[in-house]
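To whoever picks this up:

The parser on our side crashed when reading a file containing two proteins. I've narrowed it down to the boundary between the first structure block and the second sequence. Both blocks are reproduced below exactly, byte for byte. First block:
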Amino acid sequence: MRASAAVAALTLTAGLLSACSTGAAPASSEGASATRTFASAYGDVKIPEKPLRVAAVSYDTPWQLMSLDVKPVAAQDYGKWIKEFSDTQQDFVKGVPTAGSFGELNYEALAATKPDLIVGDAYEIDESVYKRLSAIAPTAIAKGKDRGDWQGLTEQIAEAVGKTDAWKGAKSTYETERDRIKTTYAAQISGNSWAHFSLGDDAGQFSIQEPTGAIGNLVVNELGMKYGPGVPTNYDASGYHSYPFEQLGTVFTGVSVALHPINQDGSVPQGIQDVLNNDLFTRLPVAQAKHVYGLKTSITDYVTATEWLHEVEKTVLSAL
């Protein structure tokens, strides 16, 4: 899981990204000289036909590259959050040079890795930052329908790095597993009312993961798990909404199965444990029935989405 709902949904501004370093000189790029045109979020850009040194500048981009079997030459420093990622993900970024951390992009460190292509998403990279990155190397910025549109973001990144075939293969595997699970567990899915909750913005709050976010999209749109009648439907692009504990009874009205994220080691983050321990929550029918399940997998691409499907099947659906 991500460190908090707020971190997961935060859109970085140019000021934050510029705080760490300024005035980096353009670096010489390595790789093939042939170019092609990519429709970036901020306009068409010429990028290498076959990029050899790809730098990832958004939080989820390294994992999207991982799903395409592309090792980045630079990524964010995940030291603060590294235990939230799987062993495979941790191994993937081990030894990769860092170019700042979440909210603090270091342009000089990025330039020092001599990328021939920089990739990221528009939910963290605004146009002013894009221009600074473009002074270092050709920059392809993906933009989906909303922040949770990992399908669209990964498709665009795959196009940028020349891995569309790998993306298509991962997509096909995911769709096959999704359809199998929807068919096999149709009674469990349609026979329950669902909610996926997580940390709130502040202490004493919880959040509902909405269909405009990565997790909510999988739960509601992809698997067809209908949220309970108490869950507000005024969804926005942030992908979640935070509520005070006092609204637990209202929001969870009619919910018969509740899902929430847990850490990779199986432990429950303190903010979520606070929800589980709250008297209002413990009196809910879903809690009384012990139909509250923790899930480890975070979704950024078709590979992690398939892993999430398998975890839901094993942990939740087969137990109902």
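<<boundary where parser fails>>
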Amino acid sequence: MFIKILKMKIDILTPIRFGGPQKWGDELVTALRKKGIDAVNIHNFFGIIKRFFFSDADIIHTTLPLFFKFHKKPVILTIHGDYRKENFSKYFYPIAIKKANFVTVPTKFLMEELNLKNCKVIPNFIFLDNYKKVKHKKKESLRIVTVTSFKFLDKAKGVLELFKILEEVKKEIKKEFDFVVVGGGPYLKKIIEESKNYSFRIKFTGFHKNPKEILEKSDLFLYYSYLDNFPIVILEAMACNLPIVSNDVGGIKEIIKISKNKEEFKKNLLKLLNCKNIKNVRNNKKIKNYSWEKGIDRFINLYKNCYR
């Protein structure tokens, strides 16, 4: 069976629009190839449509709702977020779930939220060697960063909450800080306008395909959102050895210690900022559990089970 798996080809289908799922697909391909398994990430329109009718792969692993197919190839469906929030594709997911050989989600939270009884929980992973650990030194001025997507109103509102919290925090500390906001989308312009109402320094980078370059030059990572499941940027911040303060949204509490409400968020942030020297936090010790090197076998075992 192991020899047969090595000779297999896996077609991975991810969205046309670049984002977390497409990046996940690229890294899954890399991890599989390191194991000697042929795989390709397909994220162009015609390539995706073709897989509904024909595929020369042995297994199709999709993040898109493959709700019908004219071939008998096994299908694994990985759902990264609450598809009920989607405009159009939400209607196809229930059919795709029933037709898939296996369904996976990255968190227990999403499994319970979508009421998926027969699915596998396999978290997101990253390549740890791709990240440089920040060496925290005593500084008079800190660089605080958040990474989000302004394509979603619920995430944009989270950044507004960070503005309010940081404005309150500034009055209670002596340290100076810059707040770097990474991300693009239709709500960015409105958020930039709102940022002019606050007294601390805010820098907007816009969309950044590889935010680790910014994380590696930062001191502290903040995350606040009203909609999410398992943002990969949390793992990236952990890999960069950044202390993290996050609100309680989606399945983030399955990865790190979260702040249950706005008051606790502010308290945890103040605790970090009042340290003479910001150092590593307990959260980041778990990062080895989320390496592709450690996690890829969980997907390979699913591929094996498709032919048992």
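After patching the parser it read the second block fine. The chain has two domains: 2-125+291-305, 129-289. The radius of gyration is 21 Å.
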